[in-house]
Each structure stands twice: as structure tokens, then as C-alpha cells.
Amino acid sequence: MTKLSMKQTAFALFVIGTLLFAFFASVSLSFSPQRNSQKARSSDFFFGITTGGTVAETKTTIDKVKDYTNVIIFTNLEVTKNLTSLEEVVDYAFANELSFFVQTAFPSPYGGFNFDPIQWASEARSKYGEKFLGYYLFDEPGGNQVDLGDYVQFDKSSMPHDYRDAANTYVYYLYVQTRSFIKTVQLVTSDYALYWYDYEVGYDTVFCQFGWNNSRAINIALCRGAAEMHNTTWGTILTWTYDSPPYIESAPELYQDMITAYSAGAKYVLVFNYPQTGSYGVLEEDHFEAMKAFWEYIAKTPQNKTSNTEKVAYVVPDNYGFGFRGPLDKIWGVWEADEKAQLIWNEVSSLVQTYGDGFDIIYGSPWTQVFGRSHYDRLIWWNSTDGG
């Protein structure tokens, strides 16, 4: 990697089916919120939702979930770019003992802010203390890159020379846009690809997305592995399954995904609650019952910090910006799958069969070659037969 990305890396060093449904039903019937539960309020784990409604809708949503969540992300930029509306929703969350992230944008002269978000972050830390968790900046940067979406660091009109150049370009240009925030406040995003390189940029936490038909195990392996090697935290966000109503998965499926993420060691489990199709976003009463059941579950069940109990990591080539959604996925968004892609996909699929979500995926950077063994007991290098 470039000096810049290495510098950022160095800085970062410091049961199933009916049984679940029966459990869900029994807990729902007997639920009584444990608002002051020490376990439920532990700063070691955060559970909550996003809210993209108006100020009034946001307050209504907070009233709905405040007894069985401990974090919220404000995602409506029309609210968060206006100081009056921002502080109204933040003050309301704070009064209800919720920690919070604020989604923001790069403060360009034409960005629509009526205040300086970087200065506000400094003041918010004094006013709200540890309840202000930081900024959510830029949505799905890695996913946009592999799918050549609206927000990319390069495309086919500005083709990198090779994979190394692509990695360096992605990290550098995204860092330039985030550096003022990185120096001031904890920075998070959610993504579905290139987690490793989001951490290289300097993000403190990446929420890997559980959505569509994408493999939960592979996304856990990629995001948790990236966080482990960068000595930081990771989380999950449960997002859309459909591109039209009802958008989100069923309540039993939602509950299962929350359990999966928690059991895998995620520090954050979040529910993506958008668009505002009802009084509380896309969530229906059965979804809220699932959330209550999960809140009870975490109050009674200590979290293992990882499901990777054998400390195994699969090592893919350095700078290999593969999308990992199938053997033909794009590489950095600008190259078709190469001769390595099918083999890597087959090997990862085999590891999922063997370990489920109990392994990580990391990149064969110089950093990994030096420090990989201090993080994992076994490294399985791609296309190797010696088992690491």
C-alpha cells in the first residue's frame, strides 16, 4: 500500500427454525423491558435502528424503541444539516438515554449546512459525552466502487494501472474527503464490499450489511477480519431484502440475523429502517416484537467476542478488490473476474461449509505478512495446500 494507507493502518494498531420461532414467541408474550439492565446498557454492545424521518417522526420512533435499544443513527440529511432540527432530535435521544450516530456529508460550500459539522462534533462531545458516538459519513463507499455507483473514487474513464494502483487510489481519494472528520470524531459507515480498504482509509467501524441473498458468513469473515487486522471494531446492519415493499425481511428472519451477528462478535447490531412507509419507517409490530425478544436475549446471554474460536484466517491476494458476491463478481468495479476469482470463490465456499462464520478473510499485505500470526493461529493462503 501507499505510505498514506500504511500510516492509517499503523494508527489503527492501538437450534434454528422452529426453536427460534418458539423462543421468539415465548419471550414476546412475557416481555417486560429491562430499561436499567446493566447488561442491556453495556457500552460493549450496541443495538438499535436507523431513522430517516422528520423531526416529529424521529421522536415518535424513539418513543417506540427506547426501552429495548441503546443506539440510534439519524440518517435524514435534511434534518442533520440543519442545526436546529439536528439538536432537537439529538437532545431527545440524549434525554431518553440513547447513544447516537449522526449521518453527515462533506461540508462543501454548497453542501446545505447552516453550521460547521466538524466544529459541532467537538462541541457535542462536551455536551453529550459518551452518548455521542460519532459521524456516519458516506454510505457504502466500497459497494459504490465495485458497482460503479454514484459515489466512486475512480471508474473506467480513469482506469488504474493495476490492482495496487486501484487500492492506492481508492484509499487516497476517500481519505482526502474524510481526513478532517478522522482528526475530530469517530467515523463509521456501512458497506457490502471492500471493508478492508474502508479501514485503510481510517474508518473506526464498518457495519457489514446483511441483506438481499448475500452470504452472512462471507460478509462476517470479510468485515471481522478487516477489523481484527486493523485493531478496531465492526458491526452489522440488517438492510433490505427486497427493492419494493415490504423491503425488509420477516420478523423471524430478522431475529435470526440479529442472533447471528451477536454470536459472531459484532459490537453493533443495527436495523436499517428506511423508507418511511409507516408510522415507524418500514418496521411493523412483529419486527418490534423481534427486537424486544433480542433485547431480552442479550440481557441474559453474555456475548462471545468472536465465533472464530479456532482463530483461522483465509488470506487473499494483496490489493484484490473482489466483490465476493459470486465467482463472477467485479474487481474494483472496473475489471471482470480474473483467473483467480473462481478458485478463491471455491476455497471460500469450502471454508463456509467447514466453519460457517467461524473464520475470517484478510488480505496478504506486507502488514499481514508481518503481523498476521499475532492475530491468528492459522493462516490459509489462497491457492495453498499446506493449510497455512
Q: Quick gist of this model?
A:
The protein is α/β, with parallel strands linked by helices.
For the structure shown, list the relevant keywords.
alpha/beta; three-stranded parallel beta sheet; TIM Barrel; about 400 residues; eight-stranded parallel barrel
Task: Describe this structure as you would to a colleague.
An eight-stranded parallel beta barrel has the order 1-2-3-4-5-6-7-8, surrounded by seven helices. Strands 10-9-11 form a three-stranded parallel β-sheet, with helices on both faces. The protein folds into two domains: 3-300, TIM Barrel (Alpha-Beta Barrel); 312-381, no CATH class. The model is unreliable at 1-42 (pLDDT under 50). The chain has 14 helices and eleven strands. Helix 10 (216-229) links the parallel strand 6 and strand 7. The protein is 42% helix and 14% strand. Helix 11 (251-264) packs parallel to helix 12 (285-300). The chain has helices at 3-11, 18-30, 55-65, 77-80, 83-95, 117-128, 141-146, 163-182, 195-201, 216-229, 251-264, 285-300, 341-355, 366-375, and strands spanning 46-51, 71-74, 99-104, 132-137, 187-191, 205-210, 233-238, 268-271, 312-316, 360-363, 378-381. By secondary structure, the protein is of the alpha/beta class. It is globular and about 55 Å long.
